[in-house]
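Design job #97: recover the sequence.
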């Protein structure tokens, strides 16, 4: 669905993207993760045909954004920081206005989207009084009015509280599952969206430093397992089943194990002495992997 190969882009002689290559298959949710200024928004603008690449190949559903920008914009929805909503108009009026503008007026879809995004109760209120989260949700509704096959989201969780983030994750997951929408999400705090992404592309200073699914990244980057066990166990030598531990909180022990294969043996041993309420691997979530990928990239 998205094919990017060896793309380069400079602004005023300054290289912003270099040798950028990645793919997204139909129905995938890809997270594009990188710090401020890495070039994430520039990639969205290239994919959407708003700007052109200096070199390399870009295809969106087989189309070249440089020459087929208008066709691409028919099948793509974009959610950016500036949603371009009219504050004096209600949520419903905004959606109706843009649906007419885009030539896709479908009142039942507008009502469905207002309900899906939890805005039906506020649909008659002016957007000027909406909270940041409500505006963000309305921006998503606006972007998918024409039922796009592809959705690009630039920092969709900026300014949202934890409830708002959970809501956005839920809506994106529904759109992906129910409509089969392929989604590209750009963020510098993407680990909030870990539950919705199927794979990740890591961008740093305009270069792709890593890509893969969470389990592929886990296999590549997690050499030892840092395990936190919530247990009543205490031993005089700070060891359990031959593994040493450090106490990192009330009833919380931290073990460093050579691999996941050692976890059952360790837990069996602890359980024979005391209770265990939980055991959690701390270094294989997206946040931990993100920092590890960047650390190793800095070293090389
Ligand atoms: N039109 C432009 N003219 C000149 N420089 C630009 C232009 N657009 C982007 N840049 C520069 O390109 C770099 C990458 O910008 P971009 O907005 O793509 O980064 P980003 O990864 O989306 O960052 P953020 O997380 O802050 O949104 C920045 O240094 C930015 O100043």
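Job complete. Output follows.
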């Amino acid at each position: 669905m998205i094919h990017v190969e060896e793309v380069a882009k400079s602004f005023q002689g300054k290289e912003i993207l270099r040798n950028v290559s990645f793919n997204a298959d139909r129905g995938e949710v890809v997270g594009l993760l990188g710090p401020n200024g890495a070039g994430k928004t520039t990639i969205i603008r290239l994919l959407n045909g708003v700007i052109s690449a200096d070199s390399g190949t870009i295809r969106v559903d087989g189309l070249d954004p440089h020459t087929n920008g208008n066709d691409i914009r028919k099948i793509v929805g974009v959610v950016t920081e500036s949603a371009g909503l009219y504050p004096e108009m209600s949520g419903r009026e905004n959606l109706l206005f843009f649906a007419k503008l885009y030539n896709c007026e479908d009142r039942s879809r507008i009502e469905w989207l207002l309900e899906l995004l939890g805005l039906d109760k506020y649909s008659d209120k002016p957007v000027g009084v909406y909270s940041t989260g409500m505006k963000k949700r309305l921006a998503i509704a606006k972007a998918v009015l024409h039922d796009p096959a592809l959705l690009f989201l630039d920092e969709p969780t900026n300014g949202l509280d934890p409830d708002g983030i959970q809501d956005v994750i839920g809506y994106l997951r529904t759109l992906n599952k129910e409509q089969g929408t392929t989604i590209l999400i750009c963020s510098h705090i993407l680990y909030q969206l870990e539950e919705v992404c199927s794979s990740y592309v890591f961008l740093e200073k305009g270069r792709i430093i890593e890509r893969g699914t969470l389990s592929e990244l886990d296999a590549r980057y997690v050499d030892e397992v840092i395990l936190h066990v919530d247990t009543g166990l205490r031993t005089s030598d700070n060891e359990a089943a031959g593994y040493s531990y450090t106490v990192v909180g009330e009833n919380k022990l931290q073990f460093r194990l050579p691999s996941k294969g050692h976890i059952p043996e360790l837990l069996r041993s602890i359980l024979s002495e005391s209770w265990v309420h939980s055991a959690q691997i701390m270094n294989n979530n997206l946040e931990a992997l993100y920092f590890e990928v960047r650390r190793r990239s800095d070293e090389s």
